Amino acid sequence: MLGLMQSHPLLVSSLLVHAARHHGEAEVVSQGVDGAIARASYRAVERRARSLVGGLSGLGIAPHDRVGTLAWNSQRHLEIYCGVQGMRAVCHTINPRLHAEDVAWIINHAGDRVLMADLSFVPLVEAVAPLVGSSVQAVVMLCPPEQMPAVALPEGMALLCYETLIEAGEAAGEAYQWPVFDENSAGVLCYTSGTTGRPKGVLYSHRSTVLHALGVNMPDALGFRAVDRVMPVVPMFHVNAWGMPYAALLAGASLVMPGRHLDGASLARLMNAERVTITAGVPTVWLGLLEHLRASGERLDHTRRIIIGGSACPALLIEAFPVEYGVPVEHAWGMTELSPIGTFNKPKPAQAALDPEAHRQHLLKQGRAVFGVDMRIVGADGAALAWDGVQFGDLQVRGPWVCSAYYGEAPGSALDGEGWFATGDVATICPQGFMHIVDRSKDVIKSGGEWISSIALENLAMSHPAVAEAAVISARHPKWDERPLLLVRAAAGQPIDTAELMRSLSGQVPRWWLPDAILVVDELPHTATGKLQKTVLRAAYGDTLMKLAEA
Amino acid sequence: MLGLMQSHPLLVSSLLVHAARHHGEAEVVSQGVDGAIARASYRAVERRARSLVGGLSGLGIAPHDRVGTLAWNSQRHLEIYCGVQGMRAVCHTINPRLHAEDVAWIINHAGDRVLMADLSFVPLVEAVAPLVGSSVQAVVMLCPPEQMPAVALPEGMALLCYETLIEAGEAAGEAYQWPVFDENSAGVLCYTSGTTGRPKGVLYSHRSTVLHALGVNMPDALGFRAVDRVMPVVPMFHVNAWGMPYAALLAGASLVMPGRHLDGASLARLMNAERVTITAGVPTVWLGLLEHLRASGERLDHTRRIIIGGSACPALLIEAFPVEYGVPVEHAWGMTELSPIGTFNKPKPAQAALDPEAHRQHLLKQGRAVFGVDMRIVGADGAALAWDGVQFGDLQVRGPWVCSAYYGEAPGSALDGEGWFATGDVATICPQGFMHIVDRSKDVIKSGGEWISSIALENLAMSHPAVAEAAVISARHPKWDERPLLLVRAAAGQPIDTAELMRSLSGQVPRWWLPDAILVVDELPHTATGKLQKTVLRAAYGDTLMKLAEA
Fold first, then answer.
1. What is the dihedral of CA B39, B42, B45, B50, to 10 degrees?
2. Alpha-carbon distance B250 to B210, whole Å?
3. Taking a C-beta distance cutoff of 8 angstroms, is the pair B196, B536 a contact?
4. What is the mean pLDDT of residues A436-460?
5. pTM, full prediction
6. For B93, which of A17, B12, B109, B237 could close a Cys bridge (C-beta 3.0–4.6 Å)?
7. Is B446 annotated in the active site?
8. Is A187 in Cβ contact with B3 (below 8 Å)?
């Protein structure tokens, strides 16, 4: 027996239409590449998105075609998000911080037919264009005609102007009705910037995106209201800007788009001038803002909440913003494969009873599962571990906005037999369901079936005054399979006594966590974004303990 | 091209499982029929719901079977909601305030195989049982064995005890896995208590119920958080208790179930003893609470919000609770056919600029559309009217939790050609999208193509000191088709001068709104629930103006 309710597919266009009909006066404020402020109502954005469909249709773009974007957060990027998906094409948001070769590889893999690019990406476009001639037929610059730059493109690749395209599509857009289609249709394609191997594409559906918007706009997650003015600092090319554009449309909250101006001074100015109530981004951005506020003496006049995710939140931020600026900081966790939000650290009744220090420790956890995401931790044998806040294991997730396979691969191929997706993180979960990431799966040390957190050991080592930087890797071991090896770089003028360092670690961790050896090195290898390259270290030092055992 | 995300159907069991896994320690507090307080965690409720499935399966209940409930708000009713739907059977919530004959008609129409009843409904069960012998095979009393009452049932209809059923199902429940099935499957059946004709059944699907729970738990609607303790005063037999049980499971909010004790003193005691933060119900209940608080001097120590719906909220409540008790009152609107929530009166930025009197008037509006519900107003010709806050027309809605047809009828049969459902209400919508109900469609006066609100005229007439009660009906008119006729009952010892009353009305409404005649009557007819019976008045007085014209 089926229910007798109306069948309306969950489509991204329904978010835009809701905003235009019921919050038509709410606005999108955009800071352009040149710093100029532009304003448009949701009513205008919806009308322009229809004109965009008219313009793209004129170029021959059809349902299922991919449209690539190289763009900052802006009104135009929002129009592309909604217009491209609304016509059942696929919006492919490209991370412009990747190397040109990787960008080209991604564009070719996605088969993008058109590229939409902000003015600041002309050099990148010129580097990429010769490598993607087979699929890309046109580059559309996100500007009015009078700002059109010269862009060197290969023969056969057209250079177009976004505002001219919108104008060309106006007549068709006037009468356009957003089509109704299968909610499982692809809507957005976003590649992970995987640290190993080629980037992999995650292909969101309209259903997953709308359910994510609903799920993450609960009061215990993003929680946007119509009176809010939301500034997404995390880029729209980075996992849907954490779903904020969609959640804002759903709630009728106004959006304040910072463009490319993400330094502390620019953010503070925009937050105060545009009365931003909620903002979200990665820790680095907020460290920059904090530094600027402390130096300038400026305040945050309207901001009620700062949401932090993307990587573990430093304790400094969790303490400084509430105490010095009266703005609570909220920790969230997610990943590209999760649309991205999985957990949010919002209180349960028990948190009210924590003393201040326990509360600070609690806020460092990544949070509890939002409805729509289920999670568990499993040990090396794949069996689920208890939620005791102590045991840690591989974090797995499942739910309607978790990916099932990467672009080009068979549905379900990214999952295990029970439908779980392995996040690649290692975490604990406390009895109240708060998850805390302790390591990456590939970095955790598996010592005779028991796991040791490399990050916990590194943090301890770095608290020693003589240590400037520390890396803990798993080194092969004849008896325990893997044991921790600690590599340290000395602080300037502070020679390291490894025996003394080992003594300082003992007592602070279980005895069997202590590294089997400590090596002092001159330099530790890093990726372009500043992360430790543990693969390089494992290649160089992975056999150290075997050699010691043989010796 | 389809997305590559996981496919998880939206099932009611997923709400319960989420609550048990991620909010296992949150609790359901139930005030029994006898006033005793019982507590259970969501973890326990989920386990008992599985045992219930085991017990019902033992009785032969299978997917698609209907299970009727005659029950107050309680933990057991929540277990039935979730267990029955979780096994893919249909939970049929019956309004025990209807006449026994209507209850029997509904049970026969639904084809209920089992009835679950609270102890206070033994007389009703005994009255109904002889009339429903063809489908109902057992009556399950919601109590432990030691409280089992004597109930006179027809031969062949078994009398069972709920706690015994749970115990019988425990072993089967232990290993039970909630089945995964089509999210469009029927989950709950609820009959409208239509004022005309037979009750009509609305058959919610799992999909509509889960989407409703997500949509109405936005911060600008119910907005439950894990730290909330929610008391649904509106009964679970009345349109899913407005979706609150589901929203609480989703948010991990604790539930405080008042049972049958809905008088002001009982509610105040429970709200303070159980630290209720949010509650919701019809205006009558809150008038009772207000009266009790004023008389007793008690305060509301923990309550942050009172949500009012079900019928238009009196200005008294909107003013008294915030001013006297510091608790804001929020106005919402919905109906059985909408699961039920359609609109919620939460502020937009513009409301901050209203002066106090304009703000009070604003709060009397039913609110703006929740994402998931679209609405419009149409004139007599079916054309959409402008949202100017002045013009009023028939209110129509559509969306994934709006009904498409009544139980037993063809899908789509309750909709017009464009998929809109006519609510039977007449409303204005202001430019900001706030809807205000001005009349029922069948009561509005259609005067030469222009509409006049009977309710607005009645309210004006009743503000005259000599008028105890007023009714405005549409009377047939030779030129204008319909014109307003005002019937008034005089206040004790206050003879009514109709000419003077007419003069007092003029100036307060457009000239053409003034009634064509005023009749003073001794008595106005009412329904059992105290509403004016305008059908009776139209039958008696509908030709008054025609006769006057002939005379």
1. -170
2. 9
3. no
4. 90
5. 0.94
6. B237
7. yes
8. yes
